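Reply to dn_fold:

You asked what the input looked like. This is it:
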Amino acid sequence: MQQKRVGVVLAGCGYLDGAEITEAVLTLYFLERAGLEPRCFAPDRPQMHVVNHLTGEPTGEARNILVESARIARGKVEPLDRARMEELDALVLPGGFGVAKNLSDFAARGPEADVDTELVRLVGEALSRGKPLVAICISPAILAAVLHKLGIGGARLTIGDDAGTAAAVTALGARHEACTVDRAVVDERLRIVSTPAYMLGPGPRDVGAGIEQAIATLAGWLRGATGAV
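and this is what came back:
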């Protein structure tokens, strides 16, 4: 039985301007522990800005999203425009402000946000093929924006309990459900699972519990498709 392959979309490296490192690493860990093969992808273009994670201030540097994502993936990352859902069995979106800055402009425009066209394409391919999706941290809000662009409403999603972000999710036509950090919200109709992670925190143990549950749900769906992962 061929090992199931799961696309993991990264948005750089570092929670203030890229992918949230702990969330990304835990995602890769729980995928492999479940017997799934992660394949990392990221856009090959400059990120919105670079932030000094010690001070929280922009540095004025220019960095490439793909190159920065390679720090997390240990070099095993491909350009997002090469990802095809016909070659993947599921898709996972870890969080971090890079999702709202590099994969979209949600950080600046909220529910009026535009989203990376390749990400919109990839999510559309997943949904049209009935392949499951996992969205972590702020990623469910960006996923809501993608679904809005695809004309799909009513998705059950969570970003935790932040009122402003939840309102943006609702404005985009999804149904937001409050959730604790160690749990996940499951949309059986669209086969989407989401978990708050560092939208709530406070640390790797709690964040990991929610991500573990989300990946376990994903693995269950994939086993159900063939009887084995």
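The first strand starts at residue 5 and ends at 9.
Hope that clears it up.
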